[in-house]
Amino acid sequence: MPAPSIVILTGAGISAESGLGTFRDEGGLWAQHRIEDVATPEGFSRNPQLVTDFYNARRAQAAKATPNAAHRAIALLQTRHGGAITLVTQNVDDLHEKAGSQDVIHMHGALNSALCAHCEHRWPASLKMSVGQDCPKCNAPAARPDIVWFGEIPYHMERIEKALARADIFVAIGTSGNVYPAAGFVQMARHVGAETLEMNLEPGENINLFDDARPGKASETVPIWVEEMLAG
Ligand code: APR
Questions:
Q1: pTM value?
Q2: What CATH number is given to the structural domain containing 13?
């Protein structure tokens, strides 16, 4: 019996115990800032300084954060599991990479990456980006955070859909199931007969689509699940 092909989707909840705020929990980021002001292209063109400051603050916080047991367990699974593992994250922090994960698919972009709004060139973002920074490739003063804002198209969707189409197991960790297309991945996995599991502090919006759920803190539930997968 070949080892199962696993697709893992992570959200802000997996980084919560590393001290990075989630979006929709009590006092979360969207309680402190209006999405339309800091996470839309319109917000950026209206007030690029406000948006640049918002991501500079999150980048500085993420730079100081360390991965927790959930990130480390997933990295371990990637090294030891016999079958394919596709790790998709909605998070823009680099805690999966810091834990040793390879080939992390950042479908909402990454704080450590800068994007040229003019020629779409990408380069490693400085810790503190400034408004109107020149693109190192085309020299246009058009640098922006390489973050997928509301109304923009998530990255790597073709690759993600291909992985979902051949998934035997789909696991969602620390995501509220509020934002599409990520919230629809469980449906795509079910469609091909994959087993679906949610590991979340609170049940997500799409909990009824999961075969199984393990409520609790990711730093506790994920290592137990990985141990079972590796013993299996
Ligand atoms: N362990 C496990 N789950 C947790 C923990 C924890 N320690 N703490 C919080 N959670 C869960 C919450 O119960 C919630 O279901 O994590 C989820 C966080 O949900 P959101 O804040 O909505 O974050 P996320 O689902 O990643 O948001 C998706 O929305 O705003 C956009 O682009 C942004 O990528 C983000 C997307």
A1: 0.98
A2: 3.40.50.1220
